[in-house]
Amino acid sequence: MKNTFYYLLAILTFIASSCGSSPKDKVIVSGKTKTTSNPGNKKIKSIISYAKTFNGTKYKYGGTTKKGMDCSGLMYTSFKKENVILPRTSKTMATQGKPISLKKVSVGDLLFFKTNRRKNVISHVGLVVEVKGTIKFIHASTSRGVIISSLDEKYWNKAFALARRVL
Q1: What pLDDT is attached to residue 8?
Q2: 24-44 burial string, b = 16+ CB within 10 Å, else e?
Q3: What pTM value is reported for the model?
C-alpha cells in the first residue's frame, strides 16, 4: 500500500513537471481559470498567426470563416484554434480575462471599442498584433473586412473603451 502511494506520487510529479505548468500561467476558458504552460509565447503567436490568415476576408455579420468574418468571430475562431474558448460577442468577450491599462497592453491582448455612441456599449473587438511606438490590432471592419489598424487612427482612438488580457 505504501509503495503504491509513492508510485502514484512519482507519476503525478512527473506529469506535472513535464507539462511545464506554473501557477502564474493561467488561461481564461469560458469564464473559468485554468493553468497552462507559458502562454505568453507559442500560444499567442499561433493565435495571431492564424488571425492573420483571414486578412482581406470580407466582413459578414456572424461570420467565422474565410467566406466572411465579423470582429468577434475573428477573435472566437483564432483563440479557439488554441483551445481557448471565448464568448461569441464582443460585449460578452469584454468581461473575460483581466482589465489592463493601455500603457501595459502587449501582443495578444484584446482591445474593445464603443463604435455606436448612441448605445454606449462595447460593439467591436480587435487583437493586438504589435506594440512598437503605436499599438496595431487585427479586426474585422464592416467597411474593409479583416485588416490591421493602428490605435493612433483618430476613429479607433476615439472609440477605444478598454483593454483586457485573456492569456
Answers
A1: 36
A2: ebbbbbeeeeeebeebeeebb
A3: 0.76
Number of other residues whose CB lies within 10 A of the CB of residue 133: 8
Residue 122 annotated as catalytic = no
Catalytic residue among 64, 78, 79, 124: 124
Catalytic residue among 51, 139, 156, 163: 139
Catalytic-residue membership of 19: no
- In degrees, to the nearest 5, what angle opens at C-alpha 128 toward C-alphas 124 and 130? 145
Residue in this structure with the C-alpha cell 484554434, named with its chain if needed: 81
Convert 80-94 into a string of H (helix), E (strand) and C (coil). HCCCCCCCCCHHHHC
**pLDDT average per 10 residues of sequence, the chain (167 residues):** 41 29 32 40 95 98 97 98 97 97 96 91 97 96 97 97 97
